[in-house]
Amino acid sequence: MILIFEDEVNLPIKLSVCENLIIGIQFAVQNTPERISPEFYDAVREAHKSEHTCVKRIRLKEFACRESLLTDLLEVPHIRSIRRLFVAIFSMTILLTVLYNLAEFGTLNLGLGVFKAGFAKPHLSLAVWVTMQTTTFCVYPCFIGWACYRKRLKHGVLRAVFDYAYYLGVFTFQCSFLVLVTCSVVWLELPPAATVAVLMEMLRFVMKIHAFFWSNVSRVVDNSTGVASFRQFAYFLFAPTLVYRDEYPRTSGIRWPVVFRHLKEFVCCVWLFSLVYECASAAGLMSVLLFFYCVQHCWSNAVAEVMCFGDRQFYEDWWNAHTFAQYMRRWNGIVHDWLHTYVYRESIELVFRERRWLGTVLVFTISAFFHEIVMTAAFRNLYPVMAIQFEVGGLTFMFVKVHMSQGLGNTMLWIMHCLGNGVHVLLYAMEYYARRNCPADTSSLLHYAVPVSWSCNGIALSGNWSTSWD
């Protein structure tokens, strides 16, 4: 129709075309209700209603080019001045620590004792990481082999059996990956900080494998679109996201000054983290704030800049949240998106249906399980502090609705933040020092399940940190 009107035709022809179109539309409108039964319209309404409800209930992750919230806020002069204040406090803390140690002990101590003890044996940590990365790369050829071979199976039953065998193999691979890496860091006797870093990478690999498999297996089974290329798979492995897409919004190039600035801030945060723990000064809340800025802002933005990854909304304004549900959604966007997409959303669609509260319980249970894997391997004992807080405190605050003003709700969240993280640091530190300084029977399994700090006060003010894990 547009092509006809753009050509040089005379006015009578144009009027004739318009009249014929109007007559055809009127005929369709008048005759369509008579030709289609009312049951058809009811089915269409129900399908539309169901689709609308499903979309409202299960929100999909949408990627777009955007900066991190702190990056935008630091463009404001007032916020930039507050940032400079923190830099000044950090510099004065380092200076005072150096002067105190020179005057008191006659030694130059830059507050790196915790860092040296926590990240000892870096060559072993690197070897474990390279092994994990190489193993993860092998997932792609195995997936392509399954996708190609299943096409040769003409019989539906054989193809279904082959598919379910592959699904079971993927699940077994993920479980074996978790067990073998966890056992390797324990067998290699990696120190706590190095163990946490390696196991966080282990969880990242497992979640990325699951995201890639779950996003592509339906395309293979339905023969809807082509399988992702190895380039897309490799980019996803290094991109700062856990939700798979064939394509992501990209930036035009790498800004190396931005990369170096984020890496510099990352190193400074690790340094301050070591100094805070060595001085035992407000370690609870300070450690969480340092972890947030160090990992979720500096490191994630540095990786995103190197990978030209456009969507850098790794978190939202969690500090303004006035409900626990808001805080959980805004605190860590990368992990939240994975849990929402591949755990909550899929469990609602496939298992729980309208019982969304069961999906929430499943999300908290999986999150608590992963946290306990890391903490148990790092400290070589089972002390389920975080699991209890997730399963008891977290679910209670999620389901129990207390009506209060936004200001009061935000204040209560900050109080819980301070108390909760303070309890974490206190209990884990007490248990760590008790196991290092108190004699115990390591031949019994109860030694690894029952907290030693309950029966032995092993906290000492000297000799707690060393440069080796022994």
TrEMBL record:
It comes from the Eukaryota. Keywords: Acyltransferase, Endoplasmic reticulum, Membrane, Transferase, Transmembrane, Transmembrane helix. It is found in: Endoplasmic reticulum membrane. GO terms for biological process: cholesterol metabolic process. InterPro entries: MBOAT_fam, Oat_ACAT_DAG_ARE. GO terms for cellular component: endoplasmic reticulum membrane. The active site is at 371. It is a multi-pass membrane protein. GO terms for molecular function: O-acyltransferase activity. The chain crosses the membrane at residues 85-103, 123-143, 164-187, 270-293, 357-375, 412-430. Pfam families: MBOAT. Belongs to the membrane-bound acyltransferase family. Sterol o-acyltransferase subfamily. This is O-acyltransferase. The gene is 6034223.
